[in-house]
Amino acid sequence: MNSNLRLNLLLLAGVVLIIGVNVAAFSYSYWASSFDLFWNDFLNAHFYRPAAKAGDRTMADCLKVNDFYSARLTTYFRADSDDSAGGRIDDMSKYAEYCDRVPGTGRVIFSVTLIEEDVRGMPVALSFYKLDQKGARALLTSLPAKPHPTGFVTLDSPVSYRGKYLLELAFNEGKSAEDKIEMPISVGE
Fold it and tell me: Architecture of domain 54-187 in CATH?
C-alpha cells in the first residue's frame, strides 16, 4: 500500500470521526435519558455495593415496594454489651442507623415510613420473624393492625442470633400478597 492511499484512509477516518462526534453531541437530548438509565443500571448491577449504613445510602436504597404500596425502612441498632443491658431504649443517640443489614446481635428498632398519605388512615400491622435454613418463619414480635396517621410504624425487638429475619408490613387485613411488603433483614452476615 502506498503512502498516499494510507494518508487518504487516515484522513477519511478522521473526517468520519469528527462527523460522528458532532452528530452524537447535537442529538444528545434524544438519546441521553435512555443511555443514562442503561448506564446507571449497569453500574448498580456490577460495581456499586448496597448501602449498609444510613449515611451511605440514598432514599431508594431502603425503599420497599409492592404493586400498590411503598414504605421506607430505617433500622436503629444497638449492639449487645454490658452498657446496653436493660436501661432505657428510647435514647436514640446510642443507636447506629442501618437499612436491612444489621452488623450483629443486640437490640433493633425498626422504623417504617409509610410513603403514600392515603395509606396512613388504613390499618397497618408489622410483624418480625426469625427464618430458619428452610425458610420457615418463627414470630418474634408484632404490632396489631391499626391506623398510623403520622405515617410512622415502629417496632423494637432484641435479635439474639445471627442469620436471616423478615419484617412484614401488612395493609388492611393483609390476606393477599398485594397487601403485604416483606423486608428481608440480615443480622451479622
Answer: Sandwich (2.60)
